[in-house]
Amino acid sequence: MTEHSTDYELVIRPKYGLLDLNWQELKEYRELLFFLALREIKIRYKQTMMGASWALLQPFFTMIIFTLIFGRLAKMPSDGVPYPIFSYSGLLLWTYFSNALSQSSNSLVENAPLLSKVYMPRIFIPTAPCLSGFLDYIIAMSILAVMMVYYRFVPGISILLLPLIVLLTFMLASGVGYWLSSICVKYRDVKFVLPFFVQLLMFVSPVIYPVSIISGKLQWLLYLNPLTGLMNAHRACLLGHSPVDFIGLSISALITIVIFLSGILYLRSTEKYFADLI
Amino acid sequence: MSSLKREEPIISVKHLSKEYNIGIDKTYKTLSGTFTSAIKHPLKTLKDSRKPCSTFWALKDVNFDVKSGEVVGIIGRNGAGKSTLLKVLSRITFPTEGEIKMLGRVGSLLEVGTGFHPELSGRENIYFNGAILGMKKREIDDKFDEIVKFSGVEKFLDTPVKRYSSGMQVRLAFSVAANLDPEILVIDEVLAVGDAAFQKKCLGKMKAVSEDGRTVLFVSHNMNAVENLCTRAIMLNSGKLTSDGYDTREIINKYLTSNDQENKNCTWINKGNEYLNAWFAPEKAYLTDELGNTIDNGQFHNKVNHYFNLYGTIKEIDPALQVGYALYDENNNLLYWTNFNDTTEEEWPQLSKGKFCFTGLIPKRFLNEGLYRIEPMVSMYFREWIIQPGVNAPILYFEVKGGLSDSPYWLARRPGILAPLLKWSVEKVD
Q1: A189 vs B102: CB contact, 8 Å cut-off?
Q2: Residues of A in contact with B105 (CB under 8 A)
Q3: Does the CB of A46 have a partner CB in chain B at under 8 Å?
């Protein structure tokens, strides 16, 4: 008969502790996270003519428009780097972050049938879109590579930091995603606020402008936004045009970790009501 | 495994209660809504927030233990708490009070095809759906051929599921779920899908699962399935466990003949959009006597004919439309099915779009004394069920009393299910 029935005991009670994250279960279900991310990738470009090249075209055309408007017309400074490559290196990470954040925040509501009909670690649902976004990021990276050859940029040793920066961006996107998607289960207002929030966030992050255009005294304000440190470090380690600002990166890392962990806790503490509220 | 261990219940439910908030706030909340009402009616909002929301106990103090290898059928009327119980058991929602202990992996199947994505192919959906139900990739790999074979969609494996017929989708989804093998399987009304042949296949699969020694909890309105598959039945009524036992037949009878006033309906009125389909909208089912008077006390006198009436709107003309009724006795024996088009095609009534009333005879001096259950039956001939007796049909009850015959020798109930008054001829033979 069932030999493994004794080593697996499950107790369902009205409440469980805030810190009872149940890693064992996350490990048990880890393949589902992979399948969720894979599904995300597979359906994103279904029935489109251009397919995955949209991952290239979106940041590419944005870069061209920004280069025309901010680079040519507004003469935006860009730390001595040609404006197209400056803005594209920022847009690369920004596109990943904003897509991941938007999809993650809407994910729980969009997957309402999953929540009300099946048990699984809920946290996977907002995590999956942040994972699947990596593919787009890598595809879009190819244009940057071409531009770097064209503009003769060679990344330095600090390129080794890139995985860490991308990981932190992932944690930030999913951390905010955990918060917003859980809130959205109860308050659908999130859906309407989100586009503004994302737009606003872009203008307070050094995506298309360098931090140096803000005068020294107020610069610290920018660093309250964890994206600032990540954007700067991302650009610096790819283009190698300036040393990586470790202080800025550390501040970002710290804020990111706080958001990420608190997001997990918030989602875990509210998830038991999801099926009743959604 | 030691015998001691096996005696231990695999599921133990103690004082389980689940409370839902109902009332004003049925849909989701909006922040601004909360704000504006706070500004407009500050006092009222304050009062509202202090006043406890009206609540409703979907489950109240439910206790039972299930031993390994039992197949438990959970029965009860709509709203009795069956689905809530399954949801709590599958950890989709949490109990308000009480505790459940389970030894073993739980696989739950509350809906067929949860997570199916229309854009993905059959193959991709098998993997994804399997993962959602808690299977590992390796497990799915192993069972892939079996799943495909069971579903019968071999040819369309690489076609997006959105191009499947609804029957194919359901078959594929059930096949994935049927190959799930946790120690505890929780199933909600999945047999109400697919055609008769596939339902039979599903029942066979469920039987195999239970013979494997796995524990199954099974909610269904299909009493035949419960009786055939389950070793034990539990009846819920308004959130409380009212019967529990190993004589499933007895509990089913209790359920079917329960003496609740509200359950003894002899008319049914569609509350809105029940049984939605493209062809026929049933609106009302009722019983009448020979003069066309509606019978509202459910009492039949056997001396006169009675009629079953199903009133509704034909939305789309389709020669496949079948309307009839099914008649059961109080022991849940199906006595017969009858359809309006049981005659030759030439004699069929002309149907057109609009309101129709289908009236079928319940013959006099044919039934014995007792309580009967009549269920409307609507289907598209061999294509799909709209109202399936024993599965999703509304139930009407009537009681036959008196008037069994004119003979002074036969006044009361006779042995046998039926008590037809038949013609005899007696001739002297030399």
Answers
A1: no
A2: 4, 8
A3: yes
In 3D space, the residue among B79, B97, B70 whose CA is nearest the CA of residue B22 turns out to be B79
Ranges of residues in chain A with a pLDDT under 50 are 1-6
Cα A147 to Cα A157: distance, rounded to the nearest angstrom: 19
Number of domains into which chain B is organized: 2
CATH number at residue B21: 3.40.50.300
Whether A2 sits inside 8 A of B68 (CB atoms) is: yes
Question: ipTM of this model?
Answer: 0.81
Q: What are B202-252's pLDDT values in tens digits?
A: 777 777 877 888 888 988 877 777 887 888 999 998 889 999 999 888 888
Predicted structure pTM score = 0.73
Q: State whether B159 and B297 are in the same domain.
A: no
Q: Do B91 and A277 touch (CB under 8 A)?
A: no
Q: Tell if the CB–CB gap between B108 and A118 is shorter than 8 Å.
A: yes
Q: pLDDT digits over A44-53, tens only?
A: 888 788 888 8
Using the beta-carbon criterion (under 8 Å), do B68 and A29 form an inter-chain contact? no
pLDDT at A16: 61
| B256-284 residues labelled b (16+ CB within 10 A) or e (exposed) | bbeeeeeebbbebeeeeeebeeebbbbbe
Q: Which domain holds residue B343?
A: 267-400
Q: What are phi and psi of B21, to 5 degrees?
A: -85, 130
Our CA-based measurement puts residue B163 at a distance from the nearest CA of chain A, in whole angstroms, of 13
**Cα(B195)–Cα(B200) distance, integer angstroms:** 9
Any B CB within 8 A of A8 CB: yes
Domain hosting residue A185, numbered range: 51-277
Does residue A7 lie in a domain region? no
Sheet containing B267-269, strands listed edge to edge, beginning at the edge strand earlier in sequence: B267-269, B280-289, B306-314, B354-362
Residues B224 and B190 reside in one and the same domain: yes
Total domains, chain A: 1
| Chain center to CA of A7 | 38
